[in-house]
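Researcher: Please predict.
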Amino acid sequence: MTVAAVVGVVLALFVAAVAFVYLGRRRATPSALGRSLRLLALGVTLGIVVAVLPDMLSDSGAAAGYLLGVPTVAALLPLAADLAGRAVGVTTTLAAMVMVVWGLLLGLGDGVYFVIPALVLGAAAVVSVTPRRGMPAAERQDRAGDA
């Protein structure tokens, strides 16, 4: 294991611990769970980026900037949308799809690791969907009695 891999794992574990502490304080509400999963996806993405950076630089040179930059930006955007409170579900879903495609596109190399944070972002997108509320049960019973 290289030094970069160890630093990447430590960074990912630190962000995961922060996400779980945040989740513990918020009593596991759907918005807190979604934010924690988005934070966890960012931590895993940054950990992977730090761990594969030396190999990517030696293989790809300057192209490592966009090879690792796209997943990093894709992990940052849903968290920024969550903090801004705008289009969280759409942004999280699009980021998960971009990260899956990017991971599969680079799947022959180190890019396959980016499927893991994409799955976490997918779970955050599912959690962030708010259910549509229908009629209350009392109104449904009243209407059934009228018919």
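Model: The chain has a mean pLDDT of 80.
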